[in-house]
Amino acid sequence: MSTSMIYFTLMCFPTFAQTSLPLVINTWSFKNATAAAWATLQAGGSVLDAVEKGCDRCQEEQCDGSVGYGGSPDESGETTLDALIMDGNTMEMGAVADLKRVKNAIGVARAIMEHTEHSMLVGESATLFAENMGFVTEDLTTAKSLDMFTQWLKGSCQPNYRKNVFPNPTKSCRPYKPVANTRMEKRLHTNIHSHDTIGIIAFDRYGHVAAGTSTNGLTHKIPGRVGDSPIVGAGAYADSSVGAAAATGDGDVMMRFLPSFLAVEMMRAGTDPSAACEMAISRIKRHYADFFGAIICANATGHYGAACNKVPGLLQFHYMVSNCESDTPLLKSVECF
Ligand code: GLY
């Protein structure tokens, strides 16, 4: 019997296993991240370790180009990172936003949680904090991100996220100056490749839950832009007495509705995870029918679900699950509505 099978048997032995726990669930088909988080639990690591390892695997692999270094260059060509980690037992959290020149954003988020009394650090100051905590600083630009940036400049900086400015942002690059509301047609920017945050939830067999996120945000974003991923209650939320949720998608819209917090509160009120996820998506849909986004939810008994908003390019949402049903991560999907 292999070492991982021995660990699997020990962790999932019926005497110890409580309903469907332990459980790892994460957004998108980022299988290696699920496997890394599950292996961490199997080896006796904590749920925080599992969330950190899962996110870090995606950061290293640059999952879909939208997690980690060398992706989503902003208007100045730089890649900046956002991440969040939350402990559902203590309600402690650490978040980092607009992190520059440090690859391991989830590690920095955890360091903020464990080595400060704060909840979130941002920008150059977060980089300085990370350096002081021993994280390596390096350029996050790669040949690929440089090429994306160069092509974008050549294409008159399209798409971009400016409005009510002169020159016309649908045709020209910066610098821009503000002008009165020009009633510009609403532009649809989002697609499956510009918002693929990893959001991950890990439960141990005792029901301790942690959740986290990591992303490089939105391609061609305005420097300083922060999405939903590092915002607690938006990108993720965890409370061991209830469960956890994590979201992915158009963070500029989604953060206005705190979908992860809403889903956890729905589960607290007795709603099952799939319905809680649907309610969180419906709340956003009421105002932004064409937003791009999805959410995963899991409750303290290890039941889980997901939901997504049906838009062109997102008809079905894929996510990964590891629990005692299988010793390899399972690809799951949900039809968007
Ligand atoms: N959900 C990732 C972002 O919008 O930054």
pLDDT averaged over residues: 94
Element-by-element helix/strand order: HEHHEEHEHHEEEEEEHHHEEEE
State the separation between the terminal residues, measured CA to CA: 44 Å
Low-confidence stretches are none
Principal-axis shape equals globular
Total discrete domains: 1
Q: Which architecture per CATH?
A: 4-Layer Sandwich
Biggest β-sheet: count, sense, barrel?
Answer: 8 strands, mixed
Please report the number of helical segments: 9
Number of strands: 14
Q: Output the CATH topology.
A: Glutamine Phosphoribosylpyrophosphate, subunit 1, domain 1
Helix content: 25-40%
Strand content: 15-25%
**Strand order within the widest beta sheet:** 4-3-2-8-7-1-13-14
Question: What are the defining features of this structure?
Answer:
single chain, 337 residues, alpha+beta, Glutamine Phosphoribosylpyrophosphate, subunit 1, domain 1, globular, binds glycine
What is the secondary structure topology, with strand pairs?
Layout: H1 3-12, E1 23-27, H2 31-42, H3 47-61, E2 80-87, E3 93-100, H4 105-115, E4 120-122, H5 123-132, H6 143-154, E5 165-166, E6 177-178, E7 198-203, E8 209-215, E9 236-239, E10 243-249, H7 251-254, H8 259-268, H9 273-285, E11 293-299, E12 304-308, E13 316-323, E14 330-335
Parallel strand pairs: 3-4
Antiparallel strand pairs: 1-7, 1-13, 2-3, 2-8, 5-6, 7-8, 9-10, 10-11, 11-12, 13-14
Residues 195, 197, 215, 217-218, 227-229, 248-251 line the site of glycine.
